[in-house]
């Protein structure tokens, strides 16, 4: 079977990764397509009253990859380049991510094709509420739970939660995660993905015998994940020598002032115009000499053209799908670069989203330290399983992680059987 619904470069990439892993574990042919392709997808039109009185029409999507192990879970992104194929690929990666970390979820993802930066607060609220309203027949705290992603945040989740609550007649905090703590959000959720990335970088640096105080990190993408990773890396004594956002980046071999960069970015909405380092492009920043390179922005930024020129020792994939298939083949031949693959590296966010969901269902809440320490335990356990799989299959760490996650989902489908 070849899907005509999800056809896109990023979906093809996710399918190719799946095929490689499925072959490694010699998956039952009757389970291959059932495990690979999404269970269902929704495409909706979202009309919104704009500030000038006109009605804007935005196209939105939601893909639920599988429900074999529990409800689906995944973010909603507002971005001008969102496509159904991209959303489907992201839902697949979320499925493997949840399985690797032992969470009782299938993967999901949603998105609206819009430049959220061009919307006023009133327009953003209207779009957030309308998207949620259109999705209500297909979601629920035991069916599909949404979360923030690129272009969305705590406030968007609050509007979505309120929209759902008005529909069902009572507050349902567990319908979304990544919401404000005052509405049932979890302590530590905002920084979870970035801190998880930094924690794994710290762990692998120690495994490989690198001194933390002499290590440097370069981060492409200074949004929530990249900035929180930078803060956590600094707390571990690792020097951050390069950062960038949509408008470009800055570098300083002696180290950047991350606190000042954060304050500037929050005040001005981006790093554009910051004076804290030497300017550098988003393409050039990927090939800076560093111990750790962290792509924390968009998919497929590392390709066959720049992969041979990476000068890092660890590639920590904080973004989803930042390395394309051809680049991955090149990097597999490079014994000097260790990869922490995306479906493991950035899993801290969904782990703490799971904690938030559990806390909401129980109406019992934990402290930030409790949340992050619980996350670290799960990351350590998943890391050990991936390294064992890597050794057993004699494959790359990415292939080991994919094989581990895919096998767990396939086993669940096999045990449940095929409903007539």
From TrEMBL:
UniProt-recorded name of the protein: Glutamate dehydrogenase
PANTHER family on file: GLUTAMATE DEHYDROGENASE, GLUTAMATE DEHYDROGENASE 1, MITOCHONDRIAL
Highest taxon, organism lineage: Bacteria
Domain called Glutamate/phenylalanine/leucine/valine/L-tryptophan dehydrogenase C-terminal: residue spans: 186-417
GO biological process assignments: L-glutamate catabolic process
GO molecular function, one term: nucleotide binding
Residue numbers binding NAD(+): 193, 224
Annotated Gene3D superfamilies: Leucine Dehydrogenase, chain A, domain 1, NAD(P)-binding Rossmann-like Domain
SUPFAM superfamilies to which the protein is assigned, alphabetical: Aminoacid dehydrogenase-like, N-terminal domain, NAD(P)-binding Rossmann-fold domains
Active site (catalytic residues): 109 (proton donor)
Annotated site location: Important for catalysis: 149
Positions with a binding annotation for substrate: 73, 97, 353
Tagged with keyword Cell cycle: no
Residue stretches in coiled coil: 372-399
Species annotation: Puniceicoccus vermicola
Record family assignment: Belongs to the Glu/Leu/Phe/Val dehydrogenases family.
């Amino acid at each position: 079977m070849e899907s005509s619904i999800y056809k896109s470069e990023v979906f093809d990439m996710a399918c190719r990764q799946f095929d490689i892993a499925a072959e490694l574990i010699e998956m039952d042919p009757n389970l291959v397509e059932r495990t690979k392709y999404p269970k269902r997808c929704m495409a909706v039109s979202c009309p919104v009253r704009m500030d000038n009185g006109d009605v804007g029409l935005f196209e939105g999507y939601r893909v639920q990859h599988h429900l074999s192990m529990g409800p689906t879970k995944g973010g909603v992104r507002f971005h001008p380049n969102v496509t159904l194929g991209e959303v489907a690929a992201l839902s697949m990666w979320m499925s493997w991510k949840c399985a690797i970390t032992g969470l009782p979820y299938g993967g999901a993802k949603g998105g609206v094709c819009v430049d959220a930066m061009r919307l006023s607060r009133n327009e953003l609220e209207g779009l957030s509420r309308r998207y949620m309203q259109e999705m209500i027949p297909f979601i629920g705290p035991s069916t599909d739970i949404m979360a923030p992603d690129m272009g969305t945040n705590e406030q968007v989740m609050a509007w979505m939660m309120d929209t759902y609550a008005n529909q069902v007649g009572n507050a349902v905090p567990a319908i979304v995660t990544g919401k404000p703590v005052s509405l049932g959000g979890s302590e530590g959720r905002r920084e979870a993905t970035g801190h998880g990335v930094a924690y794994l970088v710290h762990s692998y640096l120690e495994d490989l015998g690198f001194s933390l105080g002499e290590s440097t990190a370069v981060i492409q993408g200074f949004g929530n994940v990249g900035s929180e990773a930078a803060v956590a890396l600094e707390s571990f004594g690792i020097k951050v020598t390069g950062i960038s956002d949509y408008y470009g980046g800055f570098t300083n071999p002696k180290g950047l002032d991350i606190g000042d960069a954060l304050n500037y970015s929050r005040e001005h909405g981006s790093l554009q115009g910051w004076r804290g380092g030497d300017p550098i492009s988003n393409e050039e920043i990927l090939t800076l000499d560093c111990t750790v390179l962290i792509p924390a922005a968009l998919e497929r930024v590392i390709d066959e053209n720049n992969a041979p020129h990476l000068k890092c020792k660890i590639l920590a994939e904080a973004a989803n799908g930042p390395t394309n298939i051809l680049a991955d083949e090149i990097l597999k031949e490079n014994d000097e670069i260790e990869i922490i693959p995306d479906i493991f590296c950035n899993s801290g966010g969904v782990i703490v989203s799971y904690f938030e969901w559990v806390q909401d269902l129980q109406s019992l809440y934990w402290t930030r330290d409790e949340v992050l320490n619980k996350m670290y335990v799960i990351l350590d356990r998943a890391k050990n399983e991936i390294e064992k799989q890597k050794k057993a299959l004699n494959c790359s760490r990415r292939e080991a992680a994919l094989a581990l996650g895919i096998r767990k989902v396939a086993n669940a489908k096999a045990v449940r059987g095929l409903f007539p």
